[in-house]
Amino acid sequence: MKTINKLSSYKELSSTVADIVEEQITKHPLSKLVLPTGSTPLGMYEELVNKKLDWSTVITFNLDAYLMNITHPQSYQSYMKKNLFDRTNIYPNHSHFPFRPFSAFEDKIVGSMGIDLCILGIGTNGHIAFNEPGSSFDSRTRVVHLDEQTIKDNSRFFGSVDDVPTQAITMGLGTIMDSKKIVLMANGVNKLNILNVAMNGEVTEDVPASILQRHDNVEVFYCD
Ligand code: PGA
């Protein structure tokens, strides 16, 4: 079981997680971070940009990326440029999206002494990154087909369901679990049920986020 820390507002959720990132990179300027996309972390990125931190020695890895043209406005590469990378002094060659060959991407993480802090969101189906229900707990970085529920949920960012990419590259559950510290953020009542199931229910591949119960340095923050 993991404690779900309930915060009073989206602003507090964003600032709480931004403060954790700030502490990490201020105390350890050579930190390696794993970063999420989606609607939940937008406030956190805004807070981080406003802190005007020194990102010059920080290395980042993104959790996942749609298989699509990376210059498309809804690509996760565009999202990160717009919300963080173009607004900080992070070096372009210090920020990585999952790439092929996947073994080289995994080696890059290991070669940089592993991940110090991994920030995650959670899907309404219990996914973390694009590890959809049924993903192996041992999974590593790979190509996945998106779940019908994920495509439906993410259609709000696209013109229609038909425009949502159907495939993505995602870090695996095993890759995520190798992180030294993990913070999961969830915003909205539509996430509460799955969050409870994942943190207090059975640890099962049917609920990918439930694997976090097996990690000894996880913090979970929620606001409705
Ligand atoms: P969201 O996505 O922040 O847009 O709700 C979270 C996720 O799917 O991991």
Low-confidence stretches: none
User: How many DSSP E strands?
Assistant: 10
Helix tally equals 7
Strands ordered across the widest β-sheet: 1-10-9-6-2-3-5
Averaged pLDDT: 97
Helix fraction, binned, reads 25-40%
- Hetero groups bound? 2-phosphoglycolic acid
Return the structural class.
alpha/beta
Radius of gyration of CA atoms, rounded to a whole number: 16 Å
Distance between the termini: 21 Å
**Run of helices and strands:** EHEHEEHEHEEHEHEHE
Categorize the overall geometry.
Answer: globular
Largest sheet, if any? 7 strands, parallel
**Fraction in beta strands:** 15-25%
How are the elements arranged and paired?
Layout: E1 4-6, H1 10-27, E2 32-35, H2 42-51, E3 59-62, E4 64-66, H3 76-83, E5 95-96, H4 102-111, E6 117-120, E7 142-145, H5 148-154, E8 167-170, H6 173-177, E9 182-187, H7 192-200, E10 218-223
Parallel strand pairs: 1-10, 2-3, 2-6, 3-5, 6-9, 9-10
Antiparallel strand pairs: 4-8, 7-8
Bound molecules: 2-phosphoglycolic acid.
Compact summary:
This protein has 224 residues and is an alpha/beta fold.
Please, could you describe this protein's structure?
The chain is of the alpha/beta class and 224 residues long. It is 30% helix and 18% strand. The chain is built from 7 helices and 10 strands. The protein has helices at residues 10-27, 42-51, 76-83, 102-111, 148-154, 173-177, 192-200; strands spanning 4-6, 32-35, 59-62, 64-66, 95-96, 117-120, 142-145, 167-170, 182-187, 218-223. The chain has a 7-stranded parallel beta sheet with strand order 1-10-9-6-2-3-5, sandwiched between helices. Strand 2, helix 2 and strand 3 (59-62) form a beta-alpha-beta unit. Helix 1 (10-27) crosses helix 2. The longest helix is centred in the N-terminal third of the chain and has 18 residues, at 10-27. The chain is globular. The two termini are 21 Å apart. The model has no long low-confidence stretch (mean pLDDT 97). Residues 38-40, 121-123 line the site of 2-phosphoglycolic acid.
